[in-house]
From TrEMBL:
GO terms for cellular component: cytosol. It comes from Sulfurimicrobium lacus. The keyword Ribonucleoprotein does not apply. One of its GO terms (molecular function) is ATP binding. This is Phosphate starvation protein PhoH. SUPFAM superfamilies: P-loop containing nucleoside triphosphate hydrolases, PIN domain-like. The lineage of its organism: Bacteria, Pseudomonadati, Pseudomonadota, Betaproteobacteria, Nitrosomonadales. InterPro entries: P-loop_NTPase (IPR027417), PhoH (IPR003714), PhoH2-like (IPR051451), PIN-like_dom_sf (IPR029060), PIN_dom (IPR002716). Keywords: ATP-binding, Nucleotide-binding. Residues 11-146 form the PIN domain. In the N-terminal section; belongs to the PINc/VapC protein family.
């Protein structure tokens, strides 16, 4: 880890530029430890401050933080500037800036003109000078850390942005009930009917481990699927789910093919849940289920005025350059998945005939708006069904910007697969999708499901497992 409260001695962390450009608040994340900024880090910050990209914005924000810290310094810069009192007072260490020329002796095969090597030279100098305390380089660049270790210097990744160290611990939204669940929790059980659902008030040890809107199930001896409606201490209220695998409960002609899809449709069709996140590998039905639920509630039930679809435009291979046309035309190549799913949904109404399906398709397209992420700031969506596709490529900050667009009556659905991240410096642990799944769990108006089984085709399923 980057910082540990239990450390007996204050450490000195030397920050690489990419750490500040990734998270400007990293200046205040090292608790009681000191941080050191080489002059080359400041130079690289200056070189990257121009533009409207996320990196440029972060470089400017980091410079503003540094200006705030330095201008409020009471002592000389050489003695270190206290970080106490800045950004809520979470940091109690000092900030040191390079104030003298350092000519560290790197091996002859290290080009001295390279920025990374100049930072390594500073780390080596500090390592020799401050031999009584640990000097550690913090960098997001793997090669930089490898070079540091080759020189016998301590180097670490920046971990503070990671929501979880191990994504296997990520909240799945579902929980299997033990075989003895009813024996341990049915004492003083109360049961009643409410709006077509059976409700159970139970008392027992499992209650303290559950979250509101977590989905629980038991397959044997008799299938039981429920949602945690209330939870307090050792008491919980379970609400049985609607069976969307039955044709009579189909959503825009779509029925659930497995348990997790049934769970997902229960969350998507629940008007009391404002935020839904669906994780799953390719072919698990995330987009199809969400679009079916969106069309049903927008066109049939009139709960929402329109559907808005957005996604991050990060290419998988080489970029094909600038795209011509309007915002809609520019976004069209990125919306192939949407088009494929609309074709499937439009074919579910077999009785309508070719003319009827064409009319339905025109109606659907008139109610679906495709928006680019670039123009979201400052907007407010009222009574909209907002779908954020490929959400694993969003940073936590971008995710916050998007979700805070939601006005009264708006439902936000995030879809993604954290195993397919294309954004540089984002990992499974630091993705915006992982961030919202972890932070929203337990909120009464949030629902989450991790879809397990692929339903695309036997070829796609085998490819997901074998390749």
């Amino acid at each position: 880890m980057v910082s540990r409260k239990s450390a007996k001695q204050c450490k000195l962390f030397v920050l690489d530029t990419n750490v500040l450009m990734h998270d400007p608040t990293s200046l205040f994340r090292f608790e009681e430890h000191d941080i050191y900024l080489p002059m080359m880090t400041l130079e690289e910050l200056d070189n990257n401050k121009k533009g409207v990209s996320e990196v440029a914005r972060n470089a400017r924000q980091a410079s503003r933080f540094l200006d705030e810290i330095v201008s409020g310094a009471k002592n000389g810069i050489e003695d270190g500037i206290s970080l106490k009192g800045h950004r809520g007072g979470s940091a109690s260490g000092k900030l040191f800036l390079q104030t003298e020329a350092i000519s560290g002796e790197l091996p002859a095969n290290f080009p001295i003109g390279k920025a990374d090597n100049q930072i390594l030279a500073v780390v080596m100098h500090l390592h020799r000078q401050q031999n009584k305390r640990k000097v550690i380089l913090v960098s997001k660049d793997i090669n930089m850390r490898i070079k540091a270790r080759a020189l016998d210097l301590a180097a670490e990744d920046y971990f503070n942005d990671k929501v979880l160290e191990d994504t296997d611990l990520l909240y799945t939204g579902t929980r299997e009930l033990a075989a003895d669940f009813w024996d341990r929790h049915s004492k003083d059980m109360k049961s009643w009917q409410d709006a077509g659902h059976t409700m159970y008030r139970l008392t027992g040890p499992l209650s303290s481990n559950l979250f509101i809107n977590e989905l629980v199930y038991q397959e044997d001896p008799k299938p039981f699927y429920a949602l945690v409606k209330e939870q307090s201490g050792d008491t919980m209220v379970l609400q049985t789910l609607k069976d969307y695998s039955h044709l009579k409960n189909s959503v825009w002609g779509i029925t659930a093919r497995n348990r997790e899809q049934n769970f997902a449709l229960n969350l998507l069709m629940n008007k009391d849940i404002d935020f839904v996140s669906l994780l799953g590998q390719a072919g698990t039905g995330k987009t199809l289920l969400t679009l079916a639920a969106a069309l049903q509630q927008t066109l049939d039930q009139k709960l929402y005025s329109e559907i808005i679809v957005t996604r991050v435009t990060v290419p998988v291979g080489e970029d094909i350059g600038f795209l011509p046309g309007t915002e809609l035309e520019k976004m069209s190549p990125w919306m192939g998945a949407l088009e494929d799913n609309l074709d499937v949904l439009n074919k579910t109404d077999e009785e309508a005939g070719e003319w009827g399906r064409a009319a339905t398709q025109d109606l659907i397209r008139s109610r679906i708006k495709i928006k680019a992420l670039n123009f979201m700031r400052g907007r407010t969506f009222l009574n909209k069904f907002l779908i954020i596709d490929e959400a694993q490529n969003l940073t936590p900050k971008q995710m916050k910007t998007l979700i805070t667009r939601a006005g009264p009556g708006t439902k936000v659905v995030c879809l993604g697969n954290i195993a397919q991240i294309d954004t540089p410096y984002l990992t499974e642990g630091s993705s915006g999708l992982t961030y919202v799944v972890d932070r929203f769990k337990g909120w009464p108006h949030n629902g989450h499901v991790t879809l397990m089984r692929g339903e695309r085709s036997r070829l796609a399923d085998y490819a997901s497992e074998a390749l």
